[in-house]
């Protein structure tokens, strides 16, 4: 019996049922794609190994531009213009579907209430929502905790940690480039920490 079948480690599930994951000529591991599009369905018959480009092409053909954006920015090399184009398509689709987080407070509050907002995932954020201390929530007068933090100078985006100042100074993490010894790509520090180095496959 596969010890990973009751987990979310779909790469291990694939390996235990189908064998080693192939590699591309440049040494990068193939991606594991969920055939039915449901990332919670880790049944071995729903998993297939494909190249990174094939994975991108499949999600593009589905109009899943959010997935395309993640694949191209974290695991592929594209120009800033190409990345911007996909990001634009992704955001336009979310606006059309009414799920974009910048559409207004009502959309954000509904996403939080439904547990679908990206801030409502961790248990700590759920507790903050329940006790009314989450910075995405607004008071009856329309004010928010974030606006309070901006007014009193304690918001994380102002002061010594101002991201604009860090960008202007050239020391923002996104501007620090690192070369991965495994795949040889040159990527930003946040992407390196997430996908490369010892984690690179």
Q: Count the helices. How many? A: 9
Can you give the mean pLDDT?
78
| Strand adjacency order, main sheet | 1-2
Largest sheet: 2 strands, antiparallel
Question: Distance N terminus to C terminus?
Answer: 25 Å
| Count of strand segments | 4
Helix and strand element order: HEEHHHHHHHEEH
Share of residues in strands: 5-15%
The Cα radius of gyration reads 20 Å
Give me the secondary-structure category: mainly alpha
Uncertain runs are none
The portion of residues assigned to helices is 40-55%
The global form is globular
Summarize the structure in words:
This protein is mainly alpha-helical and 201 residues long. Among the domains are: 53 residues, no CATH class; 40 residues, no CATH class. Helices cover 43% and strands 7% of the residues. It contains nine helices and four strands; from the N terminus they run αββαααααααββα. The strands form two sheets. Strands 1-2 form a two-stranded antiparallel ribbon. The chain is globular, with a radius of gyration of 20 Å. The mean pLDDT is 78.
């Amino acid at each position: 019996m596969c010890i990973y079948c009751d987990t979310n480690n779909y790469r291990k599930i694939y390996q235990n049922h189908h064998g080693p994951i192939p590699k591309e000529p440049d040494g990068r591991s193939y991606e594991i794609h969920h055939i039915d599009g449901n990332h919670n369905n880790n049944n071995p018959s729903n998993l297939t190994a494909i190249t990174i480009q094939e994975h991108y092409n499949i999600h593009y053909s589905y109009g899943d531009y959010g997935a395309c954006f993640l694949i191209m920015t974290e695991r592929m090399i594209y120009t800033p213009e190409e990345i911007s184009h996909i990001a634009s398509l992704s955001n336009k689709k979310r606006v059309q579907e009414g799920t974009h987080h910048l559409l207004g407070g009502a959309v954000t509050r509904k996403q939080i209430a439904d547990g679908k907002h990206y801030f409502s995932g961790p248990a700590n954020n759920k507790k903050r929502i329940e006790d009314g201390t989450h910075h995405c929530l607004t008071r009856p007068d329309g004010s928010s905790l974030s606006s309070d933090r901006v007014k009193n100078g304690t918001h994380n985006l102002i002061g010594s940690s101002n991201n604009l100042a860090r960008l202007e100074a050239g020391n923002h993490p996104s501007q620090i480039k690192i070369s991965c010894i495994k795949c040889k790509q040159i990527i930003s520090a946040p992407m390196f920490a997430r996908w490369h180095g010892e984690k690179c496959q």
